[in-house]
Amino acid sequence: MRLLVTGATGQVGWELARSLMPLGEVVALDRAACDLADPQAAAAVVAGYAPDVIVNAAAYTAVDKAESEPELAHRINAEAVGALAGTARGIGALLVHYSTDYVFDGSKDAPYTEADSTAPLNVYGATKLAGEQAIATSGCDHLILRTTWVYAARGHNFVATMLRLFAEREALRVVGDQHGAPTWARNIADATSSLICWARQARDAGDPVQQTFNLSAAGETTWHGFAEEIRRVAAQRWPEHPWKVRQIDAIATHDYPTPAARPQNSRLDGTRLADATGIVMPHWRDALLRCLEDRPAP
Ligand SMILES: NC(=O)C1=CN([C@@H]2O[C@H](COP(=O)(O)OP(=O)(O)OC[C@H]3O[C@@H](n4cnc5c(N)ncnc54)[C@H](OP(=O)(O)O)[C@@H]3O)[C@@H](O)[C@H]2O)C=CC1
Ligand SMILES: Cc1cn([C@H]2C[C@H](O)[C@@H](COP(=O)(O)OP(=O)(O)O[C@H]3O[C@@H](C)C(=O)[C@@H](O)[C@H]3O)O2)c(=O)[nH]c1=O
Ligand SMILES: [Mg+2]
Question: Does the structure's ipTM exceed the value 0.95?
Answer without folding.
Answer: yes
